[in-house]
Amino acid sequence: MGDIELFRLFSLSEEFKNVTVRQVEKMELAKLLDRVPIPIAESLEESSAKINVLLQVYISQLKLEGLSLSSDMLYITQSAGRLLRALFEIVLKRGWARLADKALNLSKMVTNRMWSVQTPLRQFNGIPNEILNKLDKKHIAWERYYDLSSQELGELVRYPKMSTTLHKLVHQFPKLNLAAYVQPITHTVLRVELTITPDFQWEDKVHGYVEPFWVIVEDNAGEYILHHEYFMLKKQYIDEDHTLDFTVPINEPFPPHYFIRVVSDKWIGSQTVLPVSFRHLILPEKYPPPTELLDLQPLPVTVLRNPSYETLYQDFKHFNPVQTQVFNVLYNTDDNVLVAAPTGSGKTICADLPY
Length: 355
What we know:
The strands form two sheets. The chain has a four-stranded antiparallel beta sheet, with no helix packed on it. The chain has a three-stranded antiparallel beta sheet with strand order 1-2-5, with no helix packed on it. About 35% of the residues lie in helices and about 15% in strands. The longest helix is centred in the N-terminal third of the chain and has 28 residues, at about 65-95. The chain is elongated. The chain is an alpha+beta fold. It has helices at about 5-10, 25-35, 45-60, 65-95, 95-110, 130-135, 140-145, 150-155, 165-170, 205, 305-310, 320-330, 345-350, and strands spanning about 175-185, 190-200, 210-220, 225-235, 240-250, 255-265, 270-275.
């Protein structure tokens, strides 16, 4: 599902069934349709097209002329955050990696009223629109900004007076460094020890007292979520490493790698992706299949060859099938044995036999 389908899915929500397209709104909606970035296939006669347009207008911070459209946009956007969060949680639990990423991203775009292709610095207050518009037009990867000095940032936007401020804000933008240690537990289960190191400057007015993140492990194709958890970075631990322990499945044929993605719950563009290679991973041998229960003649209790032992089991004359099958190895050898059988199958007596 792409962005077009995701916006359409939102517009078809049952919550907006009473939203209608008024005749006086059609001209303004037609103008807005040409200004929003995500194409809309439906006719403006349909209410879903109106809902879709107004959501994009809200994100784009476009001005509306009609009072009725403003009223409907307020109604739609008041529900948008809640509906998109619900959609994100649904697809997260179903393990759909790409759709979960898009749903969370759209939720953050509605909250911050900006598009993900715009500069992440739009999420800070105090930067003139003129500078933000210039940054939007710069085709520079966000990671490159961390390498620029304050002077270089000032030259980039041709506004030297803002150089120090821009440099400070770039380094206040939430950034995490990741390191992972992978240990096989069984032939199909891996233990992952993930170390998260904050790499940004904490500012109370910007970050508050906590920054929430999602830790998501994806398969090598980036299609399915193998593990996810919520991680809270607190102000008092900003200078410390944080370790998370969890397990993920691994199946044949073995993938070349997994991806660990840590993405901010609030900030657009704040995410770190760590590929975890399995090139040198050595997995334990497969466990042998369960032993079949054989059709054996039940052994009599007298096989214990000890009258004092036999009195312990005077309530029955023969051992049951499970006890019969494991008797020899338990009673006559010192070998290690794992007995796994259903409740009520006589495992307690099996535990008595080696003694």
